[in-house]
Structure formats: structure tokens, C-alpha cells
Amino acid sequence: MKEFFTLEDFNLSNKTVAVRVDLNSHVQNGVVLDNERFAEHSKTINYLIEKGAKIVLLAHQGRKGEDDFISLRQHAKILEKYIDQEVKFAEKIIDPSTERTIKDLKSGEVLLLNNVRFLPDETLKGDPEFHSKSALVKFLSPLIDFYILDAFSVAHRPHSSIVGFALVKPNIAGKVMENEIESKKEAMKPLGINTWILGGAKIDDCIKVLEYVFSNSPESIERVLTGGVLANLFLLAEGYEIGFGSRKFLERKGYFNLLDRAKTLLDLYRKEIILPEDVAIEKNGERIEVNINKVPWEANILDIGERTIERYCEIIDGSRTVIFKGPLGMYEKEGFEIGTRKILTHIAHTDVYSLIGGGDTTLALKRLGIDKSLFSHVSIGGGALITFLSGEKMPGIEALKLSYSKFKTKFQPSQH
Q1: Cα angle 123-26-207, degrees, rounded to a multiple of 5
Q2: How far is CA 239 from CA 54, 202, 259, 295, 355, in A?
Q3: Of the chain's two ends, which shows fewer C-beta atoms within 10 Å, N or C?
Q4: pTM
Q5: Is residue 60 a contact partner of residue 115, using CB atoms and an 8 Å limit?
Q6: What would the DSSP string read from start to end of 223-238?
Q7: What are 270-289's pLDDT values in tens digits?
């Protein structure tokens, strides 16, 4: 049964469409790095160009207060390589000059608005009704015919650019969104996922999803193999020394606030949540592996150790379906990519159904030279991926359904 509009439902020729994409990228010394998201979203953008739409792109970069919270001017230039034409850029999102530029767009032209998270009310948590009154929706809705949600990777956020247009304009699932939803439904048949491998540096979503799954569908989460910052948080919650550098990172990111929740999860599900037995730290520029009982106080944990890698590989061999979200260590640093590389390579060469996700993970695959076609599906969603697979409702997908129910009688297939 149809739940939301797709691009094929409409004649988009000469229509002005706003498209929420996700171009969030790593930033090194002020330089935005290319990643898989540009390539994936270009499929939707190129489709719209071919159909003769006038295209206004919305995206974000970083979080307020972080070093990578910057303008999207560089993103426009990177995107040009993938669509083989100019991408106009609007420095100010809500401005008379931007309004004129949108009205002057010709069929097939593309405009990227600046970082939507620069808007104060973008990241407020709210439902579609609340966000329909946001500055972005009020400004943009009179200028567009349709709103296309293509950013699956942020569809778990109840933000203005994700849910705010649902009641105001017909919302349509883009190519990336549609593909992500369908592939994950496939992964959940018939018995769901039984081994989760969670790492990376963004761990608030991981904690939230673990709480939800263990409470609502514990049968679908038999084992959680931990690495990266998530493993450090759990190790600290368990009473282990994780080193000054690791503690400092947790503190700087505000993750100490998650300690009590991590302790509760371990108290209730210690059998399912598997922590590293050994870790890798740096000493005099060298990779040194130590037992988790022997981490020096001044250390910084940068990877999982060989014994842990071996154990994780054995668990993967006995798995039915594996999800891998987030690198297991600082793979960008030579000598500390070993855990991420070995585990991903092992998954790639087993018969297990594998879902690999997250911007950091797709970048790791590229840097480590691992062919993404070796996995069942590679998603550009991280937190969104595990939220979807947990069974928790995602605001973006719910907004698509809400918009379909509101506008479906107005836009019958025969009228398109």
C-alpha cells in the first residue's frame, strides 16, 4: 500500500522544488572533504534537472558550537562536479535577494541555500504543526510547488527542514530516501538483525536507540559489539580507566551526561553489550595494545586491540545479519585504522547480510580501499539507519506519510 509520494507521481517540468539533501562532511583545516553523500544525492538532483524542474537545495553542515559549523559555499563547488553544471549559492537563506534568485531560476537550474542550521529555529524539536510556523517554511513555501525530502540520514531529527513543510506543500520522497527505506525493509525480513556493531564519535543516537530496542524488541538485538567513543563511554561506566585523552573528549562533547544511561544499559544488558578486551593507545608515536585493565591514566584510546578484533570476527561468523555503524577507532591516523579495516574486511568476505552505514563509515571504506559492493547495502545514514532499524518512528518519514494523507486527493495519478 502506498504510504508517500515519489518523484514519478508528478510532472515536475518548470515546477520549483525545494530539496532537503544531506551534504554534511568532514572538515579539515577549514577545507570540506568530498564524500559519498554528494554522489548519492546527485542522482536525485540529476533526475530533477532532466525533468526540467527549478531546484532549490537545502542542507546543513556541523552542529552549532562545533568547529565544522560553517557555510556551504564549498559544498556548492563540490556538487558541481557531480551534476556537471553550475550550482548557484545563496549566502543568506532568508533574504529579498534569495527570493529574487529563486523566482528567476530557469528550468534545470540549481541553487543551494546556506547552512539551514544557521537559522535559530531550525533545530528546535517540534512536530509538523509547530515547524510549519518556522521562519524557513514561511519564507520558502510561497516560492515552491513541492518539497522533496531526500535526506534519510537526518530524517530522525524533528527539525524545521525535515518536517515543517508536510502540512503546507506536498512532500515527496527523493531517490535516496526511497532507496534507503526499501533496502532496510529488505534487511529486516524475516528475522531482523541480530548483531549490531556500533562505533564512531557521535554516540547520543546509539544510546537512545539501544534503550529503545532493548525495551521494545529485545529479540532483534542479540549482541552489540562496541568500539570508538561508545566503547570508551561503556568502559568508563563499567569503572575502567580510559585515559585522560579519552575522558577529555567525552567531557568536551558533553557525553558525560550519558554516563548514567550507559550504566543502566550495562546493568540490564551486560550479556548482550560486548566491550573490548584490549585497546590500542599511542606511545612515542607507536601503536601499543594494552588490556582494558591496564590503560595508563594519561592515555587516549584510539582503536580496539587484536584480541578484541579476533573475538568480534568469531561473533560475526555466527551471525545472520550484521549492521556496522561508525568506525571502531581513529582510522584517519596511521596505525589506528586496523580495527575498522579488519572488521569491515571480515564482514565483506562472509555470507552474512550486511548493512553498513554512516558518513564516517562510508568515508572510511573509501580511505581504506574497501569495495562497498562487497556489502549487502551501504547506507549514508548513521543515527538515522539505526533508528529506522530499531523500529522507532522517524519524524521525516512520518512527515512524508502525513503529507501524502493530506494531499493525495488533490493530486490523483490521473492529474499528474
Answers
A1: 55
A2: 56, 21, 11, 12, 32
A3: N
A4: 0.80
A5: yes
A6: EEEE-HHHHHHHHHHT
A7: 999 999 999 999 998 899 99
